[in-house]
Amino acid sequence: MLSILSFVSSSVLTYIVMPMFYDMLLNNNCTELNYNKEQIPIGMGLVFVFIQTFTIYIVSFYMESMDVFTLAYIISILSIGIVGLLDDIIGEKKIKGFKGHLSSLLKRKLTTGGLKLIAGGISGVLISILISTGLVQIIINTAIIGLFTNLINIFDLRPGRAGKVFVLLSLILLFTSRAGGYNYIIISLLGIILVYLPKDLKAKVMMGDVGSNILGITLGIFCTITQVLEARILYLTFLIMIHIISEFYSFTDIIDNNKVLCYIDKLGRK
């Protein structure tokens, strides 16, 4: 019941407010060139922040399921959303990748990417302390949340790609979930994405870092609360491998050179 309510609420609210956010960003010149060199609104992920926060709070409160973990999740998406919005507005274009922003931080130069590392790290540690038993699990859970937070951003280079990756990983995590009471968190965001995705696929909007951050941190937090330790270790191994590969190779090139991946990537795109 909780999952159905959250999915329907998120979908309906997204359908209602998305045109308003679109007009607001467009009218205030919050735009950027997409890969087709067209000016389109960036930062549409703001819709994710507002709708997800509202839905999770209202639905869980109504169903009397609000707890410390849920509140921590809401605080996390709000903080990482703010950092993502800053990155969309004033983000450095020359410094890229996990290694680049970490290197800048070590040189005491704060970048928006570095700020994302800090915000994601703090959120990951605080939530991990809430749900973990022992130092080893705290480290594992923190790493999962941090790496998942950045994962969607890695793939957000073509219309609809980030949304598709999120949907795929969400379904896998839901299938292997061992804490069904929290499924509504990710199902709510799926309701948002399924309404938003057609516009992204047509290259009419960009979710920006504010959007990819919300998708990523939700996957990470959901993974830590719903998966057994052995599964979390597998997810962590997968995340580390993806991030290592991304430092040396372009996932766009990898996808374009694989017929199956290329077909899936272009599916629904104009």
Automatic annotation (TrEMBL):
It comes from the Bacteria. Signal peptide: none annotated. Keywords: Magnesium, Membrane, Metal-binding, Transferase, Transmembrane, Transmembrane helix. Mg(2+) binds at N153, D209. The chain crosses the membrane at residues 12-30, 42-62, 68-86, 117-145, 165-198, 210-227, 233-251. Its cofactor is Mg(2+). The keyword Oxidoreductase does not apply. This is UDP-N-acetylmuramyl pentapeptide phosphotransferase/UDP-N-acetylglucosamine-1-phosphate transferase. It comes from Proteiniborus ethanoligenes.
